[in-house]
Amino acid sequence: MLTKRIIPCLDIKDGRTVKGINFINLRDAGDPVELAEVYSESGADELVFLDISATEENRKTLADLVLRVAARIRIPFTVGGGISSVEDVDLLLKNGADKVSINSSAVKRPELINELSGRFGNQCIVVAIDAKKIDGNWKVHLIGGKVPTEVDLFEWAVEVERRGAGEIMFTSMDHDGTKNGFANEALAKLSELVNIPIIASGGAGIDQHFADTFIDGKADAALAASVFHFKEIDITELKQNLKEQGIPVRL
Q1: Catalytic residue at 152?
Q2: Which DSSP string do the residues of 95-161 spell out, in sequence order?
Q3: How far from 61 is each of 72, 74, 105, CA to CA, in Å?
Q4: Cα separation of 154 and 144, whole Å?
Q5: Higher-confidence residue: 32 or 92?
Q6: Which fold has domain 5-244?
Q7: Which residues pair with 6 in a beta bridge?
Q8: What pLDDT, in 10s, does the model give residues 53-107?
């Protein structure tokens, strides 16, 4: 059985790591380069680095920051924010990223997934999906969750797999920052519909939430931010706890 992955997420704005609740009310969480190095040494399986305002501000991901982060870590590293072309991905991979995450640009032009997968291989193409439940249906949101669409979460997930995505990172906007647990029902449905790994995002508050999303949500990886940044959960202790529950993790 494949090991389950624990992934700290560094949301970057103005060169600093930030964290909010339901995608708003951001507060500073530290220097991204220093945090990345700490996570690399403390048992994280991967890192995700998201330049959360790049798309909204119509600029590219901070490639120089990617270079500095990559120089200090020894674990795989996914980068997202403002990526909309083959050239963008080429630069980030050359600067040290192992994977890239695309979101709004893929919804606006789905062919981008095919282009990136065809050029770089699906193993390094992650499609991030931010979704919120509206009138009982999960709807995809764009531009850091600010712009709602009529795109259905599950239909979009099936399409991104078909177009060549290697992973899906699903963030429940309803759960983000609440620390009440992941959207396990939606995650379980996603895992039934697609055959690529699903990264659960949004809602981690205690160790048990990670166990629940691996067992009930059938997630392949779990991503969190504030509980790691503010030392509410220790990754080594979390993994030991998961192992004791029979969940395969890398220690």
Answers
A1: no
A2: TT-SEEEE-HHHHH-THHHHHHHHHH-GGGEEEEEEEEEETTEEEEEETTTTEEEEEEHHHHHHHHH
A3: 18, 21, 13
A4: 19
A5: 92
A6: TIM Barrel (3.20.20)
A7: 222
A8: 655 555 556 788 888 888 999 999 999 988 999 999 999 999 999 999 999 999 9
DSSP letter for 196, please. S
pTM: 0.91
Which residue bears the tokens 């390094």? 124
The residues spanned by each domain of the chain are 5-244
Q: Are 55 and 106 in contact (CB under 8 A)?
A: no
Active site residue 130: yes
Of the listed 45, 88, 130, 207, which one is catalytic? 130
Per the structure block, which two tokens stand in for 251? 């220690």
Q: How many CA atoms lie within 13 A of 135 on its CB side?
A: 3
**What integer pLDDT is reported at residue 61 of this predicted model?**
60
